[in-house]
Amino acid sequence: MTAATSQKDLVVLTADKNMQFAVRGIVDRTRSLHIRPIDADFHIHPERHPGVLGSSHEFLRGFLQSHRHAIVVFDREGCGEESKNRKDLEATVEDSLRVSGWMNRAAAVVIEPELENWVWSDSPHVARELGWTTGLGNLRVRLQDREFSFRDDGKPSRPKEALEAVLREVRKPRSSALYQSLSQKVGLSRCTDEAFLKLRTTLQGWFQED
After folding, report:
1. I want to staple 21 with a disulfide (CB 3.0 to 4.6 A). Which of 102, 125, 133, 176 is the partner?
2. Are residue 51 and residue 127 in the same domain, yes or no?
3. What is the pTM of this model?
4. Could you tell me which of 113, 114, 134, 135 has the C-alpha nearest to residue 124?
């Protein structure tokens, strides 16, 4: 077996466990993504969001020969460079990865403002996965009653705090398994978040169906 054929398809570096499970759930949905099955490894940066931003190229240097592609994912909120927009942050990381040897084989995905923005799709699966039953009323109305505002795209302006408020009300713990379950069940075509769309497009470009 040659070095090329023994390579794995993808290494994914995320800032925390919740993000890792969410991305894993998406990567596993090959039929919905219209891509071939991916042989992927997942890792968490010990320095979380600032670490992924500042040293993902160093963390991933050891995977240059063993993996064909790399993706790094982190939140803009909490990365230490919140004054920069997500596209500039992505370009900074991708430049470092390119110089370190990945060339055009790596991509950075920066979520604006944070991972929970992906949760708030208009899919009916969201309420069900969060444990919000019909007897509790309309989820959006309840959040508005709790003084959560919504952006033009229909997502809460404070997505993480909104999620935590819902989970407290239904007495459900916030867990990595919840993020993975949501990413496995919510329709991928329903998510309009730009960072998610970049992740989807990148996977489709790299791993086209045979």
Report:
1. 176
2. no
3. 0.92
4. 134
